[in-house]
Amino acid sequence: MEAGDKRNRVPSHAELRLQPSVALHAPTAIHAPNTALTTMLLVLFAIVAAAAAQNEKSPKSITPHREQFRVIYEWRFIDFEWGSPEERETYLNNSNYIPQNVIISGINFHGDNLFLTLPRMLNGVPATLAMIPAFQNETTAPKLKPFPSWAQNKVGDCESLQFVQNIEIDRNGIMWILDNGRIGTLTQTPDPKCPPSIVLIDLKTGKNEMERIPLPAEIVNPNTTYLNDLVVDNRDGDYAYITDNSAVDPGIIVFRRDDKKIWKLRDKRSMSSVPEATLFRINGTTVNLPVNVDGIALGPQFRAEDDSIDRTVYYCPLASFHLFAINASVLRNESLGERSEGAIRPYVVDLGTKSSQTDGMKMDSTGILFYGLIGNSTIAEWNSTVDFRAGQRTIARDPNYIQWADRFTFDDRGNVYVVVNRLYNFVKNQVSIEEVNYRILRSHTGLKSYIYGEDLMPPGGHGQHGAGSIPKLAASLLLLAVAHLLV
């Protein structure tokens, strides 16, 4: 049966319960004496103060009108855009395509397309990175188009993509791809033929040429590493912070793009699974997953006490109830990567606990974190400007539609997306192609990705997006007004 037939369509009432948004108070107006010049000066002073405050502090979150999460796509199994029906049959007959072995993990948006990752944990996954339209309404189960091409997803060709768990697309249109190299990680004989790599594609050119950077084996063990998720920091040469949930050597890998330098930082206390969180119970199914550091998110820029510009990196093991944080400046310290495990421990902050375990998470440009609570069939959010213990909010809960929220992304129209993939069934080899196994949910929030957060001005520096233009203009107007007063 084709994946897009009537039994695979989304019912029109497939909406998820959304909790009301928090109401924010508008700023109080300031009144001044009714003197024209005094009024002008006060207004100009207000402009300078507001502009300075905007550049000195992290962006404050604004919660616009929210919509309920809706199912926009769902599949019983994943199918592809084949060259011909005969080609599909050949792949099926040779077990190069086993429909129940293809799972959607990661998601990202660019140019009206959604890019989906299909990690080769099992055999029979013909492509590990693919794309679908973000706003197509013709079918609720579109076939996936391999990206960049079929040839660049060829199994066993180390110049092609082998095992993509997640990707990120930065503000410059560069796609950052985590290619683990090793395939068949859930089989008895994983194949480590190809090295773990970071692959870069400049989407702006339209050529989709891949730049592959193999990661050094002395830092990233090709037999044990599992490059899971990443965030990209487009400052000072472009950095990626990558979670490696290796069963034997978990840590956060730092990659600097401008000189291809890489190092790894470890802290067992915050990056390892804990026994009390390894059991996952979803809709009557129990699975044991002692998975280490997994989800990662990047907060807005802020001005540190020494006047430097910094950001906060948030992370959590899959098998944990805690959320941890560390400053990006600490991760960027190469010397800490040369020290023994725990060198970053004094800089790690335990923000508190969640009511359940979390897989992927993503932060918006104002500092709101979106994440799943797997055991609760819940999507939650946290405004990082308030205490984590008190500031968590449930925004959607549904045991039928939210069965293992995996990864999140934002588009350029104010929508947030989440992949739901019933990973617990996949891991236990209980996937039935007679049931809906994979969904993409969408909600309009009016927000955008952390990638497009505000750039603060370093001391004596200039913002990347004209961040300094407003205070400079306001200061000029203020001087002009003072000059008129003196005259």
From TrEMBL:
InterPro entries: 6-blade_b-propeller_TolB-like, MRJP/yellow-related. Its main location: secreted. It comes from the Eukaryota. GO terms for cellular component: extracellular region. Gene3D superfamilies: TolB, C-terminal domain. It is found in: Secreted. Pfam families: MRJP. Keywords: Secreted, Signal. Belongs to the major royal jelly protein family. This is Yellow-x. The lineage of its organism: Eukaryota, Metazoa, Ecdysozoa, Arthropoda, Hexapoda.
